[in-house]
């Protein structure tokens, strides 16, 4: 049985919660599945100190001892992930932003390649579409298979038209998400995602083995692979990938030269 976990950045259990409930109802019409609600407010997640220990030495050396690893385990156990947040000052809620800050080391060392991901943003007036883009962008760099998210207007008190709109949007999102959840093979990377992988890899090779990120890439076998996971690249993408490797090395050289002056 597939498992979907929704991480919710609001403690109010109103419009954002309702949107996720609609997702659950719609998805369970396709097939039986385990659906878990994770309200970030219910977990102890201290604010990131910006010490960079997780980047430099590894996440297990983080000085903060709280529920971070419990939340990580919930992501690891799920087949599908939903991040749902209200629009607060044109950004995700503070709890959700801190969630991403605490897991920011995974933007350097992604891992969730086999998991489907999407985003829900609820808002009063405007600005939410950019938040959806932020959540999608973050999901991509964490390694998720990202499905286009949804922004829903929920100006309180919600009238019948808004309720109808919310249900319609969640139905469309549920359809997209379920199609992604049903894929049995990993997608072929786009040129932009291939560029990120190849240029990052080339940069790490040029910087040297003292980097913790270097060790992670080496352990994953990524210095020899075409991409993060096994995939078939056509001749054009193979050639472009080689160019991105070269570009990454040149970029590091340029930065190194500038630092010497």
From TrEMBL:
Name of the protein in question = Multimeric flavodoxin WrbA
* Domain NADPH-dependent FMN reductase-like intervals: 3-149
Q: Which domain of life is it from?
A: Bacteria
- Keyword flag Cell division: no
Gene3D superfamilies reported for this sequence: 3.40.50.360
Q: Quote the Pfam families the UniProt record gives.
A: FMN_red
Q: Which InterPro entries match?
A: Flavoprotein-like_sf (IPR029039), FMN_Rdtase-like_dom (IPR005025), ISF_SsuE-like (IPR051796)
Q: What UniProt keywords are attached to this protein's entry?
A: Flavoprotein, FMN
Q: Which PANTHER family match?
A: IRON-SULFUR FLAVOPROTEIN, NAD(P)H-DEPENDENT FMN-CONTAINING OXIDOREDUCTASE YWQN-RELATED
Q: Name one GO molecular function term.
A: oxidoreductase activity
Source organism (scientific name): Natronincola peptidivorans
